[in-house]
Write a structure and sequence with these properties.
- It comes from Amycolatopsis methanolica 239.
- Its EC number is 4.2.1.113.
- This is o-succinylbenzoate synthase.
- Residues 142-235 form the Mandelate racemase/muconate lactonizing enzyme C-terminal domain.
- The chain has helices spanning 60-77, 83-90, 97-115, 119-123, 142-155, 170-180, 199-202, 222-231, 245-253, 264-267, 270-282, 296-305, 353-359; strands at residues 3-21, 24-38, 42-47, 129-131, 133-136, 159-163, 185-189, 213-214, 236-238, 259-262, 287-289, 338-340, 360-366.
- By secondary structure, it is α/β, with parallel strands linked by helices.
- The protein folds into two domains: 3-116 and 350-366, 2-Layer Sandwich (Enolase-like, domain 1), CATH 3.30.390.10; 121-340, TIM Barrel.
- Strands 5-6-7-8-9-10-11 form a seven-stranded parallel beta sheet.
- It is globular.
Length: 368
C-alpha cells in the first residue's frame, strides 16, 4: 500500500450522563479520529486520549500535534506501508502510545479492508459475540448508584464495575451486594486513587467476593501492587500500569497483578494488545478489554479484540447507548448481555456521514 492522504478529525460526543471517576468527571468526549487514505483502501483509527492528561500522560491536543508534526510525516516517508510498518517506523519516538495506536489502527483497517479480511479474524478471535460488562461512575448517593446498577442489570449487562475512591468504596460495594445479591459479577476500579497505606482499608472489600480490584495504586508503583496483592484476597488487576507486553510480563513476574485490563490505545495499538494477550495467556493470567468511552469505531475494534481466547472476563465493551444518545456508526446494541463481533472487512463498521458531520468540530489534512 501507498499512503496518499491523512485526515485528522475532532468530534465532540456529549455523554448521556456525567461519568465520574477518582480523577474527574466527563460530560462529553472530545475524540480524535484518524482517517488514512491509501492507493488500495481507506482506514479509520480512533485515539483514546482524553481531553486532559488525567488518566495517562496523553491528551487529545497533544496526540493531534504529535501525529501532525512527527508520526504522519515519518510514515509518509517510509518506503513500505502496512500495519506492522507503523510500529517499526514510530519506534524511535518515545511514548505517545495512544497517538501511535490511532495511526496503526487506521492503517490496519485500510490494509484489512483492501484484503477483505475482518479485524477479528486477523487478531485471532474465537468467538462471534462477546459478553459485556459496564463501568459505573461515582455517584452523588448510594440510592442513585443502586438505581443505575439496577438499570444496567435489567438491560442485561453481565458484569458491573464500580468506580471507587477514598470515601466511596466499601459502602457502595456493600449496598450493591445487599440489593442485588452475591451472584452478580462485580469489580471495582480505583484509577490509582489509593496508596499502600490503604491496604488494611482495601482489605475490607475482600468479604464481597469481587472479581478484582483495578489499579488501586499509582501507575508506576508496580512493587506496591505486588505488596498489596499479598495483603488482599481480592485479585489485583492492572490498567494504567500496563503499557506494553514487556510491562505486562514484568508485572506478572513481580506478582503485581493477577488480572490485566487490556486497552489497545494504552499499549500502542491492537497488534501490541494481542502481544499483551499472548503474554498473559502464557502465564495463565486472565484478561478483559477495557474502554476509553470510544465512539463506535474504536468500540468495533475493541469488540473484535475481546473475542480472543484469553479474554475470559467480560470487558467494558458496553453498547453505544451506555455513553451516547447517537453514535457515529449504526449503534452497537446489547443482545442477551452480548455484542456481536463485526464480521465485515477491517473494523467492519463505517461512520454514517451525516452523523459524523453533526459531531465534527474540526478536520485537517496532514501533508503526506
Ligand atoms: C474516563 S475514564 C476512562 C478510563 C476507565 N474506563 C472505564 O471505566 C470504562 C469506560 C468505557 O466503558 O469505555 C478505566 O480506567 O478503566
Ligand atoms: Mg481502569
Amino acid at each position: 500500500m501507498k499512503l496518499t492522504g491523512v485526515e485528522l478529525r475532532r468530534i465532540e460526543m456529549p455523554l448521556v450522563a456525567p461519568f465520574r471517576t477518582s480523577f474527574g468527571t466527563q460530560t462529553a468526549r472530545d475524540i480524535l479520529l484518524v482517517r488514512v487514505e491509501t492507493d488500495e483502501a481507506v482506514g479509520w483509527g480512533e485515539c483514546g486520549a482524553l481531553a486532559d492528561p488525567l488518566y495517562s500522560p496523553e491528551y487529545v491536543d497533544g496526540a493531534a500535534d504529535v501525529l501532525r508534526r512527527f508520526f504522519v510525516p515519518a510514515l509518509a516517508a517510509a518506503d513500505h506501508l502496512d500495519a506492522t510498518a507503523v510500529g517499526r517506523v514510530l519506534a524511535p519516538f518515545k511514548g505517545h502510545r495512544m497517538a501511535k495506536a490511532a495511526l496503526e489502527m487506521a492503517v490496519l483497517d485500510a490494509e484489512l479492508r483492501a484484503q477483505g479480511r475482518p479485524l477479528a479474524r486477523e487478531l485471532g478471535a474465537v468467538r462471534d459475540r462477546v459478553p459485556c460488562g459496564v463501568s459505573v461512575g461515582i455517584m452523588g448517593s448510594v440510592g442513585e448508584l443502586l438505581d443505575t446498577v439496577g438499570g444496567y442489570l435489567d438491560a442485561g449487562y453481565v458484569r458491573i464495575k464500580l468506580k471507587i475512591q477514598p470515601g466511596w468504596d466499601v459502602e457502595p460495594v456493600r449496598a450493591v451486594r445487599e440489593r442485588f445479591g452475591d451472584d452478580v459479577l462485580l469489580q471495582v476500579d480505583a484509577n490509582t486513587a489509593y496508596t499502600l497505606a490503604d491496604a488494611r482499608h482495601l482489605a475490607r472489600l475482600d468479604p464481597f467476593g469481587l472479581l478484582l480490584i483495578e489499579q488501586p495504586l499509582d501507575e508506576e508503583d508496580v512493587l506496591g501492587h505486588a505488596e498489596l496483592a499479598k495483603r488482599l484476597a481480592t485479585p489485583v488487576c492492572l490498567d494504567e500500569s500496563i503499557v506494553s507486553a514487556k510491562s505486562a510480563a514484568d508485572a506478572i513476574a513481580l506478582g503485581a497483578c493477577q488480572v490485566v485490563n487490556i486497552k489497545p490505545g494504552r499499549v500502542g495499538g491492537y497488534l501490541e494488545a494481542r502481544r499483551v494477550h499472548d503474554v498473559c495467556a502464557a502465564n495463565g493470567v486472565p484478561v478483559w478489554c477495557g474502554g476509553m468511552l470510544e465512539s463506535g469505531l474504536g468500540r468495533a475494534a475493541n469488540v473484535a479484540l475481546a473475542a480472543l481466547p484469553g479474554f475470559t472476563l467480560p470487558g467494558d465493551t458496553s453498547a453505544s447507548d451506555r455513553y451516547y444518545r447517537t453514535d457515529i456508526i449504526e449503534p452497537f446494541v446489547l443482545s442477551g448481555g452480548h455484542l456481536d463481533v463485526p464480521a465485515g472487512p477491517g473494523i467492519g463498521v463505517d461512520p454514517v456521514p451525516e452523523l459524523l458531520a453533526e459531531v465534527t468540530t474540526a478536520t485537517e489534512r496532514v501533508a503526506c
